[in-house]
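Name: LRRC63
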Amino acid sequence: MKHLTGLDMECNNITSVPWQELATSCRRLRVLNLQSNEISSVEKSIKSFRELIQLNISHNKLTAVPVELFSLRKLQHLDTSHNQISRLPQYNLSQQRQHMMDLVDLSYNNIYKFSDWLLFISWCTDLSANKIVTIPGSTIKHMDYETTQRLVLRENPIRSPPFDICMAGLPAIIKHFQEIKNHSHIYQGCDLLMIKTNSVGPEVQWGKPVWCRA
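Structure predicted for LRRC63:
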């Protein structure tokens, strides 16, 4: 099948995929649809799909995915929604990507920790219906709040930042963290009133301002 560019195996009872053999046999494969099967794992050999631009492995039984899946050089559309993924792998941002993906769909999983590196590999990241409680601002606060990127966080038990800010989208989240960063550099001062008693009567003196962090 060396000339095959599209393969649709949706809605079967497939439990495992011979990833390396499939990649070797279908070197030109660009679209692979494995939606609605019984697949429980994706092997590191997924990196052998060098021409793949669209992969749908939603509605399966994945509990984890390898970092190689997010490193495919030509991949534009990745759908791993409706699985049982609980955490994402560590991704080395020093790796130079040739492009940003159009979509990474991780919705309807069990992900509890937000991985900020997703914002550096995809124009749209869908994390709806997971178990994310906190969005850390260590990386996000350095981004441009005028970005056109999308971050979808619906149906998560988010506590920080405030839920309404998260629902307003990535620009609002970035602006929220930037405001916190700016406020941390603001100092507030107050004048110190000193009353000194002498033989004539109380003497009022104004001391130097006392500064404290906001």
